[in-house]
Amino acid sequence: MNILAVLGSSFFRHLLQRHLGFLPQPPMFAASIAEAQVALNSKIDLVCLERHLPDGSGFDLARALRKHPETSRVPIILLTSSVDPEVCATSLEAGITEVFSKYELERLADYVEQRMRRNDATEKLIGKALLVEDSVPVARFIRSVLERLGLRVDTCPSGEQALESLEAKTYDIALIDVLLEGRMTGLNLVREIRRSEGRNTRVPILAMSALEDMARRIELLREGANDFLAKPMLEEELAARVRNMVQLKHLLDETEAQRDHMRRLAMTDQLTGLFNRHYLAEIASRRITEAGRHKIPVTMLMLDIDHFKNINDTHGHDIGDMVLAETAAVIKDCCREGDVAARTGGEEFVLLLINTVGERALAFAEDLRGRVEARRPGGIPVTVSVGVAETATGAPTTFEALFKAADDALYDAKETGRNRVVKVSL
């Protein structure tokens, strides 16, 4: 697959090349629209571009690509630091296929890999099949077809053995004969798979039988089989049905992954991977209420990167983004199970600690402050100020009250010299 990546930032060109290391050949890179137009002399299968380029807009480049006969149908991916409705709407108007955050390049890599899988109708499938068939000659024939399609195949002669495999491994398709060795029939096995809560409960099932029994076929489909194939079977028909079922599963998996991603986007900050302010208010309020009910003290830390505007002005926004991301990484390393960490805007972060107060809370905050300073995020000297607000054991409070107290403590930390921790109690 030939990919043209039009990215003005050398930092993100390097990151993208690393994430797409699985490609047979590395992407072609262009730093501007002018360089991209030269690269169009080569065959291009996919274009990845930034919203802002040194000599124009990524949207304008996308519109030009759609008018170019060689790229009119090529997928165009936009990388942007902010995925919002306005950007998405403009992208669709410009002919852009997909929009991804610059800070989640692993999703772009997954997308490219999926495109590679679907690029050719005769391409090899990627995945694993479970073949449940007690006839050795039939199993050998079906296995050879599946392996030529590119699938790895596990074969079981009985439903009992198949259930053991289904508990231990994840499959992309199960081919199940109606009559099997042992006490379990193919219908029993289909029913068990669909009623289970294991990893394969939604695996595509292709039922097979030499019996001309329409009632049995209907029952298999009612119990959860996705398709039925009569024996003896044509190799071409078997291959076509299996290919369609496996590719549909991959599409459904991709859709589910995108749905999960949208859920994560709704509650996380794209740059740092921490919770965002909106979700912080929701989850912290629940945790604080629950802690109050059980008479458990809570502490809130509010952390602010010192002189962050100067960092952006002196070193540029790419370094500023790296400082934010690496500071967040330090925060994640310090967090324990049950702690809540969020980026609440700009260079400000908030942590909610349950059952950590007094000297322990101060020690936690000092350790966090020291780790950020030692880390040198972005390769430059960075310090942080921390405000700490805590409740007494069992004392009722609200998220808003704790947030304001931590904010006041942070203000005191900055007013008294920065790069320090100040604590207040409610």
Quick overview:
This protein is α/β, with parallel strands linked by helices. It has helices spanning 10-19, 33-39, 58-67, 85-94, 105-118, 136-148, 159-168, 186-195, 214-223, 235-267, 277-293, 308-315, 317-334, 358-375, 399-415; strands at 3-6, 28-30, 46-50, 52-53, 56-57, 76-80, 98-101, 128-132, 152-156, 173-177, 205-209, 227-230, 298-305, 340-345, 348-354, 384-390, 421-425. The chain has three domains: 3-118, Response regulator (Rossmann fold, 3-Layer(aba) Sandwich); 128-251, 3-Layer(aba) Sandwich (Rossmann fold); 277-425, Reverse transcriptase/Diguanylate cyclase domain (Alpha-Beta Plaits, 2-Layer Sandwich).
- The shape, in one word, is flat
Kindly give the count of domains.
3
Unreliable stretches covering 5 or more consecutive residues:
none
**Rg calc:** 28 Å
Going across the major beta sheet, what is the strand order? Answer: 2-1-3-6-7
CATH topology of the largest domain: Alpha-Beta Plaits
* Level-2 CATH architecture of the largest domain: 2-Layer Sandwich
What would the average pLDDT be, to the nearest integer?
90
Task: Characterize the biggest β-sheet.
Answer: 5 strands, parallel
Would you report the number of β strands?
17
Can you put this structure into words, describing what you see?
- With 426 residues, the protein is an alpha/beta fold.
- It has 3 domains: 3-118, Response regulator (Rossmann fold), CATH 3.40.50.2300; 128-251, Response regulator (Rossmann fold, 3-Layer(aba) Sandwich); 277-425, Alpha-Beta Plaits (2-Layer Sandwich).
- It is 48% helix and 19% strand.
- It has 15 helices and 17 strands.
- Strands 2-1-3-6-7 form a 5-stranded parallel sheet, with helices on both faces.
- The longest helix is centred in the middle third of the chain and has 33 residues, at 235-267.
- It is flat and about 85 Å long.
- The model has no long low-confidence stretch (mean pLDDT 90).
